[in-house]
Amino acid sequence: MSTPVIELRDVHRRYDGSSEGPPALRQVSLTVRPGEAVAVLGPSGSGKSTLLNLVAGLDRPDTGTVTVNGVRVDALGETASARYRRSQIGMVFQFFNLLDDLTVTDNVLLPAQLAGMARGKAGRRAAELLETLGIDRHAHAYPGRLSGGERQRVAVARALMNRPPLLLADEPTGALDTASGEDVSRLLADLNADGQTIVVVTHDLALAQSCTTRTIRLLDGRIVADQGTGDIEGSFAREGAR
Ligand SMILES: Nc1ncnc2c1ncn2[C@@H]1O[C@H](COP(=O)(O)OP(=O)(O)OP(=O)(O)O)[C@@H](O)[C@H]1O
Ligand SMILES: [Mg+2]
């Protein structure tokens, strides 16, 4: 079997000051293999973003290990962690997190510049991504002029700029209308069909069903189900879609 992209072992995380209630994550173990598209579903507060942040090296577990492509992410120092994110991870967020005073192209170029990619090469890659994602006509616009769906496609282009082995998305359709949400989920499905490994956090079962093959369900910081997305049953589906 191939090396896992993500390997969590007995991960435990409790935030400072939250001594009451369940920890954000408890005893979470999870393996994600190359080419998988995994949805992380669960009610608000169940630990979905915490899980994603640990994989991205933005947070550390209290105990347990987080390994991504063979790298112990939980053991990286700050500089190495930033470098890890630049080279290994693309991230997409609910509210796009674009820089409004940079053009679409400059937003997309940013990760390449931080990674020191040659300008010409970076420019070609950015243009190619904008074209693939159908937003090339907005290349010189500022994000504030774009629709939510267009902004999210810019965010996806930026996330893919450095060809990260792993794409993480936290509620990528949460701020979009239904049609734009469907565009973004089709985009994620296409990327996965081309081999991109994806983990997408969502409340939206329709999103999970349209772009993932495996669904993990979190409840109070624990994985309570891990199954084929197509196998999710009606009652479960309704709960997941809440
Ligand atoms: N920075 C923080 N400091 C303290 N507690 C936090 C922090 N971030 C999250 N928590 C707590 O940890 C638990 C899990 O939060 P998390 O953000 O992972 O949930 P989530 O599943 O992403 O929820 P949502 O669907 O609302 O985004 C919650 O109880 C939350 O209040
Ligand atoms: Mg969250």
Describe this structure in words.
With 242 residues, the protein is an alpha/beta fold. It has a single domain (34-57, 77-240), classed as 3-Layer(aba) Sandwich (Rossmann fold). 36% of the residues lie in helices and 24% in strands. A 6-stranded mixed β-sheet has the order 6-7-8-3-9-10, sandwiched between helices. Helix 3 runs parallel beside helix 5 (148-160). The mean pLDDT is 92. The structure holds adenosine-5'-triphosphate and magnesium ion. The site of magnesium ion has 3 residues, from helix 1.
Helical content, roughly?
A: 25-40%
Oligomerization category of the chains in this entry: single chain
Mean pLDDT: 92
- The class by helix and strand makeup works out as alpha/beta
Strand order of the largest sheet: 6-7-8-3-9-10
Bound compounds: adenosine-5'-triphosphate, magnesium ion
Indicate the low-confidence ranges by residue numbers.
Answer: none
Radius of gyration, taken over Cα atoms and rounded to an integer in Å: 18 Å
SSE string, helices as H and strands as E: EEEHEEHEHHHEHEHEEH
The CATH architecture can be given as 3-Layer(aba) Sandwich
Shape: globular
